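Issue 218. Parser rejects a valid record. Input:
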Amino acid sequence: MSGEAAVLGDSVAAELRTSIVDQTDAPGSTITEAAVAVRFGVARPTARMAIDRLVAEGLLRREPHHAAKVPVLSREDITDLYDSRATVEGAAVGSLARSGTIPAEALAAHRAIQAMHAGDTFAHEDIAFHRALVNGQPSGRLARMHGLLMGEIELCIGQVQSYSLLDPQEIAAQHQAILTAVIAGDAAQSEQLTRAHISYSRDRLLAHYDSTHPSPR
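Output the parser choked on:
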């Protein structure tokens, strides 16, 4: 595939990623090569490349000989993903605190969330904030581990916010506490606050899941 086609494939993947995080393509939606090709005005090989990228990232799942689908996450998926995320991000932010510096991208995302009001969606800013913190610390291995989780993390963040489970000002306050600990160089506090912040979102999503998936009596 030519460089131009690869760039186009990346662009389609980015737009499709946004529509999945925003729930335009809701959990359970089927994403076919033909539909993506028509939707974005690209050739089938380019559509296939974009879908393959999102399958690799975890934003789509595909069984052999079947079209890709937006995952419907189970309670176990949510718990495992958030607990894994808390472990990796907690360690990463703790590592970042040893430098006492905040990546510019994280600060920009934080300020954008601070300017929002109840009811505003901030999934993309939230994702940018967390990704920037992890990528700003010195361990390439931690960043790669986080990258492996990032697709499903984006899926979860999109679901949490599509259900209006989080208030941007409340999340901004939690982010500010993390940033304050990082600037102070307090690695233990930075890690603890990051874990608590992620657990808070996990618990809100699980509570919503339980309310919409009642256990059989």
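Fixed in the parser; the record now loads. Residues 17 and 51 are 10 Å apart (CA to CA).
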